[in-house]
User: Which sequence fits this backbone?
């Protein structure tokens, strides 16, 4: 399941709710998840808030393509991708990605793949509020060192 | 029919508008659309494009009725 969310969400509550709704209980032996949060600093400056823009239609389509590609590459039972848009406060969750599989390797690797593809290809743009001023974030740093 | 063009994020701010409408001149590519909406600004590696909500290249074809979008590198997650 993929979802764009325009208000604060509790990633752990959503993860628990989704897992309870799954019909594949007993089939999965592993669940791997990643949550990204809004930091209060970036590039050496204090950040007081953020606006997250997206491309309605293309963004959902791209997130679905990430989930579909992960399901092709690994043995997955379920995938969940949630992403915030709009005005975001420091400490709030921005993104939740999770994968359920029979074994840990597929869950771990699919989760990482989906997160890295999302960071590098999914159409979202962050504008940071500074004190004073604001700025567009220029680009995401690579996830693999 | 015509070609609908959308701009996002910092690119929208730079161009001063969020959309444009281009008459289809036939045999058009993404870079032709860009030149019509952005004038002299080159279509550089810092500008991404999509046609009908799928990533496209400078030489990807654009047809009457298509939606073309231009935007800066993505920064989600």
Assistant:
């Amino acid at each position: 399941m993929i979802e764009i969310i325009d208000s604060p969400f509790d990633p752990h509550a959503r993860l628990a709710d989704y897992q309870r709704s799954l019909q594949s209980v007993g089939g999965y032996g592993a669940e791997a998840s990643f949550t990204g949060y809004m930091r209060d600093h970036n590039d050496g400056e204090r950040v007081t808030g953020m606006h997250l823009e997206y491309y309605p239609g293309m963004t959902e389509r791209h997130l679905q393509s990430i989930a579909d590609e992960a399901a092709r590459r690994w043995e997955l039972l379920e995938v969940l991708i949630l992403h915030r848009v709009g005005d975001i406060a420091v400490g709030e969750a921005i993104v939740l990605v999770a994968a359920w599989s029979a074994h840990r390797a597929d869950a771990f690797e699919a989760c990482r793949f989906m997160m890295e593809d999302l960071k590098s290809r999914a159409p979202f743009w962050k504008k940071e509020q500074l004190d004073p001023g604001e700025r567009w974030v220029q680009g995401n740093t690579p996830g693999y060192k | 029919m015509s070609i609908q063009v959308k701009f996002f994020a910092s690119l929208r701010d730079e161009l001063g508008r969020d959309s444009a409408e281009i008459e289809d001149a036939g045999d058009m590519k993404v870079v032709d659309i860009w030149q019509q909406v952005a004038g002299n600004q080159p279509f550089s590696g810092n500008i991404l494009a999509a046609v009908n909500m799928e990533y496209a290249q400078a030489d990807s074809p654009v047809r009457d009725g298509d939606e073309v979008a231009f935007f800066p590198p993505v920064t989600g997650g």
